[in-house]
Every structure is written in C-alpha cells, then in structure tokens.
Amino acid sequence: VVIPAQTCCGALAEHAGEKDIAVELARQNLARVMSDHADAAYIVLNSAGCGAMFQEYPHLLAEDPQWAEKAK
Questions:
Q1: How far apart are CA 53 and CA 5, in angstroms?
Q2: Degrees, nearest 5: CA angle 57-31-22
Q3: Is residue 58 over pLDDT 90?
Q4: What span, in angstroms and rounded, lies between the C-alpha atoms of 16 and 50?
Q5: What gap in Å lies between CA 40 and CA 11, rounded to an integer?
Q6: What are the pLDDT digits (tens) for 5-42?
Q7: How far apart are CA 51 and CA 16, in angstroms?
Q8: Is residue 54 within 8 Å of residue 45, measured between CB atoms?
Q9: 39 CB contacts (<8 Å, ≥6 apart)?
Q10: pTM score, two decimals?
Q11: Cα(55)–Cα(53) distance, rounded to whole angstroms?
C-alpha cells in the first residue's frame, strides 16, 4: 500500500533544531498511516534517513499522551 498523502519525515527539521516542526510532521505521518492501515505489519521507506527518523518517532512523541503509544 502506498500512502500518497504522506509528508516529510521531519528529519531535516529535527537536525536543524526545529523540534516543534518535526513533532508536527511525525503526527501527520502517523495519522495518515494509521487512518487506513493501522493493521499493517510494517512500514517500508525508500530512504535510510527517513527510515531512521520514523524509528525516532517513539522518542520524539514520548511526552505526548495522544501520540506516544501510537508512535511505538
């Protein structure tokens, strides 16, 4: 399944110290993935940097009660 509405993973914002932007992008991506594909067994990305950023979502959203568990 390709998710056409996905957005930037947030890595560049995170590296630039723009954590608020990175958090918002993470929320947007999780919302899009989970809206129709919450039962997916895995997520495949074709960029190593974006894949690494997706793996950071649990840490990035750890303090957000609405998104922390979803990010895991």
A1: 18
A2: 40
A3: yes
A4: 15
A5: 23
A6: 789 999 999 999 999 999 999 999 999 888 777 677 78
A7: 18
A8: yes
A9: none
A10: 0.87
A11: 5
